[in-house]
Design the sequence.
């Protein structure tokens, strides 16, 4: 069955940032994000949540926007742009860190980002944003023991059900890392689907519990983004292009 393209984002912030981020590709400016949404609207593309995309016969000419980690910048900068256009998204949150900070990134030297708390998530859910699971502590799941794996995947689902009154329907593997054990644990926990990242070893097109997402990067050309929206990007990314893609980036 054909599914809409599922795109992956982390942060939408007005620039410049101080301190600057270590991983620049995780940050879109608010203006860039707004321009991307305008392009979706101009092309007649409808946004779905991830849960909606995995229902039978999802609408044609649609796209899914997913945001990892549940940072405050989603509430402050991404959500207002979505709401102004009647669009939606899926927010993958780390249930054991609500109201805290991105400690997993800070350990690797990244800038500190504040995470949304319980009240914010309830408000966003009421406004039509899918609040879904990104594990309990953002651990590298294939490295976890069986007990730790259950805590991260099933435990996070229980946390969010207690918070929102209904269990989350989809799961997002931290770092996109998925293997047979984590795949089986996501299914056993009751999720209807789970997402990884394009080109990660365990990601499998067509597998609802290892679905690859395409990263929406800053500095991409409209051509490259439209390839991602068309479903042709995975094929394009495997072709030798002799630097063509690098030259296309930055052309709007």
Sequence:
């Amino acid at each position: 069955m054909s599914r809409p393209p599922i795109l992956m984002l982390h942060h939408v912030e007005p620039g410049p940032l101080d301190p600057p981020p270590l991983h620049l590709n995780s940050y879109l400016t608010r203006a860039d994000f707004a321009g991307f949404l305008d392009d979706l609207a101009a092309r007649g593309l409808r946004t779905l949540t991830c849960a909606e995309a995995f229902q039978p016969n999802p609408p044609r000419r649609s796209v899914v926007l997913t945001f990892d980690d549940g940072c405050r910048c989603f509430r402050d900068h991404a959500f207002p742009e979505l709401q102004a256009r009647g669009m939606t998204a899926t927010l993958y949150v780390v249930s054991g860190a609500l109201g805290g900070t991105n400690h997993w990134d800070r350990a690797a030297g990244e800038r500190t980002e504040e995470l949304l708390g319980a009240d914010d998530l309830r408000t966003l859910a009421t406004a039509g944003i899918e609040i879904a699971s990104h594990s309990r502590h953002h651990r590298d799941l294939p490295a976890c023991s069986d007990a730790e794996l259950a805590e991260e995947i099933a435990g996070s689902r229980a946390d969010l059900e207690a918070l929102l009154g209904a269990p989350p329907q989809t799961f997002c593997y931290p770092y996109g890392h998925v293997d047979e054990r984590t795949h089986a644990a996501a299914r056993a926990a009751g999720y209807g689907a789970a997402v990884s990242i394009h080109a990660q070893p365990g990601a499998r097109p067509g597998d609802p519990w290892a679905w690859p997402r395409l990263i929406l990067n800053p500095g991409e050309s409209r051509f490259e983004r439209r390839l991602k929206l068309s479903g042709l990007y995975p094929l394009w990314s495997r072709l030798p292009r002799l630097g063509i893609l690098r030259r296309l980036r930055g052309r709007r």
Q: What stands out?
A: The chain has one domain: 6-218. Residues 146-164 form the longest helix (19 residues).
